[in-house]
Each structure stands twice: as structure tokens, then as C-alpha cells.
Design brief:
The chain is mainly beta. The chain contains one helix and four strands. It has a four-stranded mixed β-sheet with strand order 1-4-3-2, covered by helices on one side.
Amino acid sequence: MRLFLSEHTGDARPDTLVYLRVADVDSMAAAFGVPVEEAPWARETELRDPDGNRLRIGTPRA
């Protein structure tokens, strides 16, 4: 999969959120050195780019 985040002015407001569902959130979190949080619906981690846009990555609970 490829995800293109636009840098064009006006495409999205600052602090935008993209949520990605993945099979193994732990390996993604380890790759970026960030913790995994427990939520009632999923195990999740969150990354922010320099502009403050958020990528939340989660593995749904069974």
C-alpha cells in the first residue's frame, strides 16, 4: 500500500488524523520506537509528522 499525504496548501487543516488498521501494531511501533496503547477496540500507536498531522495505527481486538 502507498499513502500519499498532500503538502498542498488548503488540502487539509493542521492536526488531521489518518487511521490505519494493520495486522501487527507492535512491529510498527517498534520500528518507530513508540509505545503501544490499549484501547477497548484495538491496540494502537500514534505518530505525528512535523506539521502536526497524526497517523494512528491500530490492530483491532478479536
